[in-house]
Specification:
The structure is a single chain. The chain is mainly beta. The protein has one domain: Porin. The protein is 9% helix and 57% strand. It is built from 1 helix and 8 strands; from the N terminus they run αββββββββ. An 8-stranded antiparallel β-barrel has the order 1-2-3-4-5-6-7-8. β6 and β7 form a beta hairpin. The radius of gyration is 16 Å and the shape is globular.
């Protein structure tokens, strides 16, 4: 999904921002301790020309704050439905799993997150020929008000070449994240 140069730039920017203000508060939560997110995505296939597919993603995510080696993290339980139109209906399935998002410090009400997770799918497809899959996500978040954040993301699902077929699914989209209550 990402070229080697893009990956190196993202890692450099992420860790540069992390160590610029270390340690820092979790920009996705602040004083709140729980989140619910509505996730909407559009399938893409050709990254150079940004060719959209008639494959859509709708999901719900429950999250809690956490620290991993003093870095702010969001632990997620996710349930995602993939629905395609026309020829893409062969990719209709659901995905459920656990993931973590690592954050940079908030700057002008914005933050960057990098996420990784492990998931189980309901169906094998010609893109991922296993029920087990991994997911990676890069998101740019914006704090609208204390309780609401919007996150624009790019997401990839594949099984990491555990099987011969692993071209995966790619999505761009938007998450509306609502912060609430304490534990």
């Amino acid at each position: 999904m990402f070229g080697k140069k893009s990956f190196i730039c993202i890692v450099f920017l992420f860790f540069g921002a992390v160590f610029a203000e270390f340690p820092f508060e979790n920009p996705a939560f602040e004083e709140k301790k729980q989140q619910l997110a509505l996730v909407l995505g559009q399938g893409i296939r050709d990254h150079k020309d940004l060719r959209f597919e008639r494959l859509y993603s709708v999901g719900i995510t429950y999250s809690q704050p956490y620290h991993f080696f003093r870095l702010p993290v969001r632990r997620n339980a996710e349930f995602i439905m993939h629905r395609g139109a026309g020829e893409f209906s062969r990719y209709n399935n659901w995905i459920a799993g656990l993931s973590q998002d690592f954050f940079t410090p908030q700057l002008w009400r914005m933050y960057l997150s990098l996420g990784i997770g492990a998931y189980i799918k309901s169906e094998k497809t010609d893109r991922i020929s296993s029920l087990f899959t991994f997911g990676q996500k890069v998101a740019l978040g914006f704090q609208v008000i204390d309780e609401l954040r919007l996150e624009f993301f790019i997401r990839h699902f594949s099984n990491g070449t555990l099987t011969e077929t692993s071209s995966g699914y790619d999505f761009i989209g938007l998450s509306a994240v609502w912060n609430f209550g304490t534990l």
